[in-house]
Amino acid sequence: MKIKLIALLFTISLTNLLHSDDLMNPTSYSKDLYQIPILDGTYSEDVTHPDEFLGFGIGERVAAPWQITSALKTWSNESNRIKVIEYARTHEDRPLH
Fold this sequence. Notes:
Layout: H1 2-19, H2 30-33, H3 50-54, H4 65-78, E1 88-89, E2 95-96
Antiparallel strand pairs: 1-2
């Protein structure tokens, strides 16, 4: 009985792990939702545009937590208008800013 329970839990965990990337896929695309571009405007050339390091446009898909952290750190190093402070960590040991 105990072995069956462990095998079941292992199977469920493995299934969740294998399909976790499916959650990152968009259910719709920004071009279908927005009539005008998102973040369209005049911005400082010294600050990296998100498209450059995310690998996709704003609103095209969900950014992974590590990508958001990377973006915040990049912008904090490039501009004196942002200060990133980690105030806690998630149960998965990801930083909260």
